[in-house]
From TrEMBL:
GO terms for molecular function: endopeptidase activity; metallopeptidase activity. The keyword Cytoplasm does not apply. GO terms for biological process: CAAX-box protein maturation; proteolysis. The chain crosses the membrane at residues 20-43, 49-68, 75-94, 100-118, 138-162, 168-188, 200-218, 224-243, 250-275. Keywords: Hydrolase, Membrane, Metalloprotease, Protease, Transmembrane, Transmembrane helix. The keyword Membrane applies. InterPro entries: Rce1/LyrA-like_dom. The lineage of its organism: Archaea, Methanobacteriati, Methanobacteriota, Stenosarchaea group, Methanomicrobia. It comes from Methanolobus halotolerans. It comes from the Archaea. This is CPBP family intramembrane metalloprotease domain-containing protein. Residues 172-259 form the CAAX prenyl protease 2/Lysostaphin resistance protein A-like domain.
Amino acid sequence: MRFEGDSPNKRDPYGVMSVFSLYSGILVIFFILFIVLAEMLLFTGMVQASLTLHFLALIGIAFSTIWVRDRNILYSLQALMLLPLLRIINVSMPLPDESIFIYVIIYILMLVPLFLLIRHQGLSATDLGVTFNKILRYIPLSIVVGLLIAEGEYIAMGSAYLSANLPMQGMVGISILIFLFVGIVEELIFRSILQSRLEVLFGLNAGLVFTSVLFGIMHAGYGVPSGILITTLAGFVLGYMFQKTRSLPLVILTHSFASIFLFVIIPVMGAGIGII
């Protein structure tokens, strides 16, 4: 199949603002808004309605890709399919939401469509941001930024988290699971694939904003309006870091440290973790 927009001089997928007009991606914007609506229904407790919209989004995107001929629109739509799929798997899990093992199962399952999408789109390790340049310099940065994100989320959403009463072994185990599954898989989805594709289609700024909003709304399950705002800001920070460095390990570390501080350390040590 030949795609429109295959000219090598037309667009550079990574780091260069797209010359495509906003109108050319109207289908992508429609499905972004559709997913946002589905997540808002979930936020208000309308689980069945939310799942119905996510199912329709998944089917609608799949069918729309049959007629799309522009490679960048097609790849952006394929990236968006990961979000309703993630939500449907999440809500369908038989385990209670507070169980850490629900994340393990969800993200192991998400590795399958991720692998297929990466292979289908021909994304290389460089395309995904798999580089360890300056990683020693990035580690302290990821700890500091991760702590700031976690403190903001803790203040905004309260203290009803996973592990306030866990022994040390349990805390270490949860930290490892968060790093191996949550950080890696979510950053592959939101930064390496979705943000990169939306940047190609709409430009750097719009791609960053769209991805940040989707990241925030997909975490609306925290149940408080301020949670959407703070996770959207967190997504913006992570997206900006990725945009400037194109380093997947940096955003994985930052995301993982933020989750570990939020779910493991702060519930035990309190806000400020004894520093302030």
